[in-house]
Amino acid sequence: MGAEASDLEPGRWTIDPVHSEITFTIRHLMTTVRGTFPDFGGEVVIGGDPLDSSARAEIRMASIDTRSAERDEHIRSSDFLEVKKHPVMTFTATGVAPAAIGRRGRTPRYHLDGDLTIKDVTRPVRLLTEFHGVGPDPWGCTRAGFTATGTLSRRGFGIEFNIPFQGDKVMLGDEIAIALEIQAVLASEDARI
């Protein structure tokens, strides 16, 4: 038997940013560009019924890292994220529902629906979430692991900058694939993160 959501103790779980990661990919010409947002935080609040749980996260937009300082500065500009005017992206969960069994055996999967706000534009997003279990860490705290994936349209958030080439082709795709690897610590404990 794999991990079950019922294994999660009700309460507030704080996202550990040192052991978590937010990544994205976007089509660029004939390849894919990958990036991360390393400066983020948030929490998961587990209800008595795990399907009554909630989550909230804040991501500092200026922390974007695509392994190119020049590109990162352009993405921070008004052509894309306008980080001086809109420094934070937020996600607030609005619902959790069971999804199909995971491809790696019996990993529990859930749909996590929520509102994502970028540049003062809020749109609903659905993340496919896998729960990887809960257990003690070396410092006596309780940790839980999750993976979440989804896609969003950057144009849906008013991020429309592009460069046309070769007739009807453009430099950047519209769809952004996002992936989160989250480790959370039960907040009632004195966590070393």
From TrEMBL:
Residues 12-185 form the Lipid/polyisoprenoid-binding YceI-like domain. It holds the Pfam family YceI. Belongs to the UPF0312 family. This is YceI family protein.
